[in-house]
User: What shape does this take?
Amino acid sequence: MAIKEYQTVREVFGPIVYVEGVDDAAYNETVEIIMPNGEKKRGQVLESSKGLAAVQVFGSTTGLDTKETRIRFSGETFRLPVSEEMLGRVFNGAGVPIDKGAPIISKEKIDINGAAINPYSRQEPRDFIQTGISTIDALNTLVRGQKLPIFSTAGLPHNELAVQIARQATVKGKEDFVVVFAAMGITHADANFFMRDFEKTGALERSVLFLNLSSDPSIERLLTPRLALTTAEYLAFEKDMQVLVILTDMTNYCDALREIAAARQEVPGRRGYPGYMYTDLSTIYERAGTVAGKKGTVTQIPILTMPEEDITHPIPDLTGYITEGQIVLSRDLHRKGIYPNIDVLPSLSRLMSLGIGDAKTREDHSGVSNQLYAGYAEGRDLRNLVAVVGEEALGERDKKFLAFADAFEKRFVNQGKNENRTIEDSLDLGWELFSMLPESELKRVKPEHYEKYGKKYRK
Amino acid sequence: MGMLAKISGPLIVGKGMKGSQINEIVRIGKDRLMGEIIALKEDTASIQVYEDTSGLKPGDAIESTGSPLEVELGPGLLKSVFDGIQRPLDVIREKSGIFIERGVDVPSLDRKKKWEFVATAKKGDSVKAGDVLGTVQETNIVHKILVPNGVSGKIESISSGKYTVIDEVAVISGKKVTLMQKWPVRKARPFKEKKPFEKPLLSGMRILDTMFPIAEGGAAAIPGPFGSGKTVTQQSLAKYASADIIVYIGCGERGNEMTEVLTQFPELEDPRTKKPLMERTVLIANTSNMPVAAREASVYTGITIAEYFRDMGYNVALMADSTSRWAEAMREISGRLEEMPGEEGYPAYLGRKLAEFYERAGRVVVQGTKDNIASVSVIGAVSPAGGDISEPVSQGTLRITKVFWALDAALARRRHYPAINWLRSYSLYQDELNAWFDANVSPDFMQMRSKAMNLLQKEAELQNIVQLIGPDALPEKERLVLEVTKMLREDFLQQNAYDEVDAYCSLKKQQLMLSTILHFYDKALSGLEQEVAFEKITSSKEKDRIARLKRVPDKDVEKECKEIVKNIDSSFSR
Assistant: This one.
């Protein structure tokens, strides 16, 4: 399609530029904006009618004017050149290399908006991913093709956790993961932390990084996760790789979405976020999965920070409705010095039952998991009671559960930042903790499993 | 022919559209994307597009088709999986690979496949709309071929044989009849009259069947925050509901969930007929990342298919997961149309649309010469923002549906599944269904139910006190209530959808389990009065046996319960 150029900017309003005299700008078409000082920016058509096009600018609009600024319509939607050469490379949030390497040149250019995976071609995710973290592996199991977000809050170690997962994640006896990492609006310090860790552990060679920092243009954040997922889909479905995508921080992405909606004067939904945010987020999160006839898979771990730890805030709320579970970080556990501070009670992996059991992990997995949950939940309930009546008022049985909950946090949840536990380690640790409880209370585990795995811990 | 004048997301405005009708289907641009006219003003039309609109531009041609959004109704529906506008996803996959490409134009029903049609009406018979002309053995379900609406009179010719869905199988008063008919989705299919409810739609889930039953032909809502088990409940219903046909709509939900249904259903069997579940199922899958306008259409596509099977005389159950996503699709389109928003940005007509949809449920006398009774039951999941059901979609739904299954995040966190809160849920069909339960389960079933409910209510009150002073400070009688309600909660209301035996619980077994637990309570209570030690009751072995009842297969339950009752009788008395 022919490239057309206009010098007819009518209005600049926040990140949106209105261009007059444009007859046939296509929806979602990319444009190039050439500022009076010669600087170039990228943009995308948001709305088009005969004679007027609204363009969102991926970058700062400072210096744009209505006289000399030129807008060049490309005639096509945003396409990313992809190749295996991208592994080991670092790009900015708009897909431009920032590691002083050469640009990616490839004949294969893929529309970054992607198309929906046909539900009929999907396969049920069922391969256990070992992250080496007990609370995830044993209690909230991640499987290949799943999307499992981490719900965190400002000031909690979600980045450390993400890095640890990226470093340790393996599928038993099969090939390692490649990691596609997309950062939206994170600080330089955080970005450096990720870079350093990836370099130090050699993970960088099998990673692709897209970094949009907090000082980078906010609207660019709308592109970043799509670039990452386009790359991930290419590596998974064309190159047969196992891909783990980490997106952080989705809260910044949503804020960019809100910024555009506000600039367009749309009717705001809850907390000012646009009504279509659910749909928009789903076009990101649903780009995970395993499909019939392809060896590669895309697994997603989006990270978001809940404003004020409010899980009913629109961002975690809509995310939870789309993703297959959530890992919730807790400030209380963090305060107690427990890492990773995963609160298992509100955490959930919906696909867990598909990825565990005899052939996949171990026969006692489901029972151990349920028993740990039940025991810990009971202990936590008792803590509330103790706050009122005092520990002295509790019976023997209740005291045991109280002690169990403490031990669960200190020994099972808590682990080192470089401690990589196998699933067997995690399950055995569970059995060891069960020895604190009366045998008659172990109702969720099968008696034969108790004989086989648990009895040896009982003195 | 019109022309695209403006585009913004899934909504376009066309010029030169005079002569078009509201709800007419149009084709846009060189890819001939499908759209539906939703507003008209002089020669401009607002059109919602059922596919991704990237790349459309002003000046693109808009073609009228002259017909509204229709579904194709005929053999081939069962076992199929369609998108929101009834395009078969398996055929799309053959055409466009793992992703859904744009502009794929495929017929809903296979045009080449031949079906064995057995005529049951004869030449010369006088028939009217809704009468059965013949049958096609589709799966294990007999697909009845009905006289289409608007056709009646004498059968001029009819013959059995092998036909495709578009071949002529009969001629009635000069009109050709094929195996397939079409119907506009936004219009309810006609029937003679609505009848009162008589039977429950059973699900094999104890909390639903015993505590809060839905009637055959009724409507129920399941609102709940994420992670509370809406989808698991809906899927259990789709698996085990006592209906002839299941229509399952995945509306704006997860792709992997549809895959789960697609993988599991062919392997599972109907506990009543022992036939594969898939054979009675029609799936509509319009996942969250598929175009939003097609999501809006998906619930109508689903309910029209449900009504079609109802018209054959079947009892149909429809699950829509989730109606909130449908409402959000309406909100998105409405926002783009710049309509005046109502509550929380939803259009002012949200309540009406919800009511219209749920009113298509019912137990009715179907069309035709004979007065056959059939039903469509509708169960809609609602996903309220933040789990707060004061929002418009939940409220609009609760105003119409008569059953409310309240999912509770706190229960889900404790891994109490199904996480349906027994204190907040209700069923307004109870009175109409009492007679059925009394006649078909046991005469005291309803009494048992209310006794159990009263105990659970009492527990909630006692819990407030326990929070303050601890359980040991309560008198023994009240501690007994706590013991028994714990059994009710854990051993009766909790049910494991993933356990082979427990996933489906027959009504007979439900009754036996409940009566055994209540018997335990009665005997323990009279035991306490005769000064049997409280510890003797709480440490009773029969408690563990009751806890294991869930996993006892149907055929052994009665014997097991009898033994438990006998042991209770002998051990709780002095």
Notes: Residues 365-389 of chain A form the longest helix (25 residues). The radius of gyration of chain A is 25 Å.
